[in-house]
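Dear all,

This email documents one entry for the complex benchmark we are building for the journal club exercise. For each entry we list the sequence lines for every component of the assembly. Then comes the predicted three-dimensional structure of the complex as a token string, followed by one or two observations. Please use this as the template for your own entries, and keep the labels exactly as they appear.
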Amino acid sequence: MSDPSGPVLEAIDVSKSVSGPEGTLTILRGVSLSVREGESFAIVGASGSGKTTALSLMLGLRRPTSGTVLFEGRPPASGARDAVHAFRRAVQPVYQDPFASLDPRQRVDSLLAEPLRWLGDPDAARGDRGGRPSRRERLVEALRDVELEDEALLRYPHEFSGGQRQRIAIARALITRPRVLLADEPVSALDLSTRLDIVRLLARLQAEHGMTLVMVSHDLSIVAELCADIVVLQGGRVVDAGRTSDVLSDPASAYTRALIDAVPRLPQA
Ligand SMILES: Nc1ncnc2c1ncn2[C@@H]1O[C@H](COP(=O)(O)OP(=O)(O)O)[C@@H](O)[C@H]1O
Ligand SMILES: [Mg+2]
């Protein structure tokens, strides 16, 4: 099938090993994947299958032992400081536990502005102010994107529910106007009742901002709703890959079949 939108993120035959007291542990083995621009992409697999490691390679926080990871054709977070900052603005992470990822001593306004302080704000660097939103307007805009009121700016993370905290974490990821969000089990720490709200929020943001979303999840019902493409990892290897609807209706591996069979609402055909 032709692919009108090319890959924004790619892994080509990537392996990752670490050495420990018991010798070399291979976490990822020959992983290849291709994330299309503007699409949502799921990485699925049991705990320990290498999902978080795969994301850390795409974020440029760790390097592959062999193989290649590419963001727009270049290794992530590579080059001079300005290039690394531009990459970090363009590719933002969202973590599982919004309490751990938000410094409890900082007010929401300061938390939201933090990525701009670290990574710079190309908007602010442009000389004339004409028409350009102020810093506060940027923060308010990010909050509105995640359906929180302006007054949240003056409050602290502990004053919010888990779902609201994850909204704040997502707003902070949006503040640099990223083109890609890498979300590592973004709803698994939340109450069942708020999970779907956050999933739908991510889906809306992805569509409205034309962002690419890579989401790690072990919940196939969420993946089926949200993600066009999927890879399934088992023990650091890709055992299934393709369009989510194709993989879920006709998986290549017994492992994926077992995952599907564990979810009553999915087609069992
Ligand atoms: N820095 C590291 N040192 C040693 N082992 C690691 C390291 N990072 C990950 N691992 C191991 O690699 C495996 C996969 O980890 P991870 O990528 O976190 O999997 P997942 O996110 O799918 O649960 C696990 O067995 C984990 O203990
Ligand atoms: Mg993980």
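Observations: The radius of gyration is 19 Å. Residues 51-52, 184 surround magnesium ion (ligand 2) (CB under 6 Å).
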